[in-house]
Design goal:
The chain is an alpha/beta fold and about 300 residues long. About 40% of the residues lie in helices and about 25% in strands. The protein contains 9 helices and 14 strands. The longest helix has 28 residues. The protein is rod-shaped.
Length: about 300
């Protein structure tokens, strides 16, 4: 079949417009063509295929069975072309919505301050940002990117390391003035320890003494599912807590919290990752957001 010099995609566009509008003149107005140009295009398609695609009368156009088949194929091909162009365009100027899930404390303190810069760099990307300590299911489509702490479970997701954080035991000056400062880990048995209510079956804090690591069970009046709440409680003088360094760095620097038992800190580090659906079809908008986080947070 000779097709040299024929813009078949344009022909399909014209045919689909005629089928949609029901007339050559209406299709011409849609495509900025004269009715005669539309008619010649349909004639050319039918001549090349050797079949009648439309039955034309003075009042109505009716698609033949072959015309219905051609229309379905034309719409599918035109949609594929649109998708291909969007993909290429997305590579050059990423656009669209990126749904991001981050923990309350880390998200508010470390990620939110970066979002304004990202928005200026990529004005066509909409960041749909959700702060929660609930683990969302990225594989099931609940988010495009999730920021996770700690070891990652085996999954089909792709992970990009963003950094790591340690943990520090802290209390407010007001609490320490009232209850005294613990000198060795075992002194915590006489203190109100504010702990996380997830991950561990037992509320234990790790320590290192004389090169030996061990865990100490601690108790207190309140448990919470996020470091930001525990930090706020410690700032209010409610008790002693052990949270991520990023949660308490500013408060320690300003003297509102005091680090405790640093000589016994085991130096354990918790990795931070961005997890997402990777692969060849990963949208550019997700890729540039993850790249941005990795560069700024590391």
């Amino acid at each position: 079949m000779q097709t040299t010099g024929v813009d078949r995609a344009r022909e399909m566009e014209v045919f689909a417009a005629v089928a949609q509008s029901g007339s050559f003149s209406a299709a011409g107005r849609m495509l900025d063509l004269t009715p005669s140009a539309v008619s010649r295009t349909i004639d050319r398609i039918e001549a090349r295929l050797g079949v009648r695609l439309m039955l034309r009368t003075t009042r109505v156009l009716t698609l033949t069975a072959e015309g219905q088949t051609y229309l379905a194929a034309a719409r599918r091909i035109l949609a594929d072309l649109d998708d291909a162009e969007r993909v290429i365009s997305d590579q050059g100027a990423p656009r669209g919505r990126v749904r991001v899930s981050a923990s309350l404390a880390h998200g508010r303190q470390r990620v939110v301050p970066l979002l304004g810069e990202f928005a200026r760099l990529y004005p066509r990307i909409l960041i749909d940002f959700n702060l929660t300590d609930v683990v969302v299911d990225v594989a099931a489509g609940q988010a495009d990117v999730a920021i996770r702490f700690g070891p990652l479970a085996d999954s089909p997701l792709t992970a990009r390391r963003l950094g790591e954080t340690g943990r520090t035991i802290v209390a407010s000056p007001e609490y320490l003035a009232r209850r005294g400062a613990p000198q060795v880990p075992e002194d915590l048995h006489d203190h109100d320890c504010l702990n996380f209510n997830f991950r561990r079956a037992e509320p234990v804090w790790p320590f290192r003494r004389d090169g030996r690591d061990y865990a100490l069970t601690v108790r207190g009046p309140i448990e919470a599912n996020n470091g930001e709440t525990l930090t706020q409680l410690a700032l209010a003088g409610v008790g002693v807590t052990r949270v991520g360094n990023f949660s308490v760095a500013d408060a320690i620097e300003t003297g509102r919290l005091v680090p405790l038992l640093e000589a016994f800190n085991p130096g354990d580090r918790e990795p931070i990752h961005a997890v997402f659906v990777g692969g060849a079809n990963m949208p550019a908008r997700v890729r540039v957001f993850v790249d941005f986080l990795a560069e700024r947070l590391r």
